Amino acid sequence: MKRIALTRTLAALALAVPAVLLGAPAAHADPISQTSGFYVNPYSSPASWAAANPGDGRAAAIRTSIAQKPMASWFGNWSGDIGSAVGGYVGAADAADKLPLLVAYNIPGRDACGGHSGGGAGSVAAYDSWISSFASAIGNRPAVVVLEPDSLGDFSCMNQAQINDRVGMLSRAADQFRRKAPNTWAYLDAGNPGWVDAATMAQRLNTAGVAAAHGFALNVSNYFGTGENATYGNRLATELRRLGHTKPFVIDTSRNGNGANGQWCNPAGRRLGTPSQLGGGAEMLLWLKTPGESDGNCGVGGGSSAGQFLPEVAYKMIYGY
């Protein structure tokens, strides 16, 4: 499973949000070709911690090995006005000619099975409005967005009415990005190799509107190795082709350097994985979870809350112990 990453988006980044593009293009432009590499958020939680603690012996390693690497910023009900938050963040990346990575994490009943990151929008209508504003705030600027970690893996903890509401919200969300953010690649979260079999996940993606998305995302906030994810992703892509969809995938490699040990919530002995890059067994390998941010009150993060930055965990993750 995957946990929350509460990356703060500072008011200092706020820029004007462009007008919404109302057309419905047949295919999105390539945001990679429009930018000169991935955006590094100067206000990420590890960057902010290192700046506030320059005398700490761990600061230099955390700054160099984590804070200066491109990683995603997460947006949810903690983000305040979502149009301003997303518009400011994407605007800052655009001004630097870099490609921003964003995660939308606000679906009602969020983290149904794990529980550590519960919450989300208060209703279906509230979520529809929120995600519409999210897409509109990106507008025609280039971006990569991962939609709702956990959302298609959590069905075992939901009733059928909740599932129906969820796939409807995801389908409408994918369509919002298709229509309003023509230079954004949106990926629906598809769990990880240890959660749902590929044929079942392909059916869920199909129902949840993967036709309107660019692709799907794997291993968000989890620890499975890149090879395991690539094998699962290719199997899932094959199942999707049987349903009429040809879709690429991305893999979260932020914390998979030592692979998984069977635990998902702050397991000990994990290590940083390959930094964000094109290719590598998938369309992209991306740091989607921020290394050092807690999965919840569990494991080596005992006593912490989901999304809290833990410098000791981050430091150990650099060296794999």
Give an account of the 3D structure.
- By secondary structure, this protein is an alpha/beta fold.
- The chain has a single domain (27-319), classed as TIM Barrel, CATH 3.20.20.
- It has 8 helices and 8 strands, in the order H-H-E-H-E-H-E-H-E-H-E-H-E-E-E-H.
- The chain has helices at residues 45-52, 59-67, 82-95, 124-138, 160-180, 198-207, 226-242, 311-319, and strands at residues 73-75, 101-104, 143-147, 184-189, 215-218, 249-252, 277-278, 284-286.
- The chain has an 8-stranded mixed beta sheet with strand order 1-2-3-4-5-6-8-7.
- Strand 2 (101-104), helix 4 (124-138) and strand 3 (143-147) form a beta-alpha-beta unit.
- Helix 3 packs parallel to helix 4 (124-138) and helix 4 packs parallel to helix 5 (160-180).
- The model is unreliable at 1-26 (pLDDT under 50).
Question: What brief labels describe this structure?
Answer:
single chain, 321 residues, alpha/beta, TIM Barrel, eight-stranded mixed beta sheet, 8 helices, 8 strands, 10% strand, disordered N terminus
Concise synopsis of the structure shown:
Helix content is 32%, strand content 10%. Its EC number is 3.2.1.-.
Shape: globular
- What is the class in the CATH system? Alpha Beta
**Strand content range:** 5-15%
Main sheet record: 8 strands, mixed
CATH topology: TIM Barrel
CATH architecture: Alpha-Beta Barrel
What structural class is derived from the secondary structure elements?
alpha/beta
Order of helices and strands: HHEHEHEHEHEHEEEH
Tally of distinct domains: 1
Compute the separation of the termini in Å.
22 Å
What's the β-strand tally? 8
What is the radius of gyration computed over CA atoms, rounded to a whole number of angstroms?
18 Å
Low-confidence stretches: 1-26
The neighbouring-strand order within the major sheet is: 1-2-3-4-5-6-8-7
Total number of helices: 8
Keywords: Carbohydrate metabolism, Cellulose degradation, Disulfide bond, Glycosidase, Hydrolase, Polysaccharide degradation, Signal
Family: Belongs to the glycosyl hydrolase family 6.
GO molecular function: hydrolase activity, hydrolyzing O-glycosyl compounds
Protein name: Glucanase
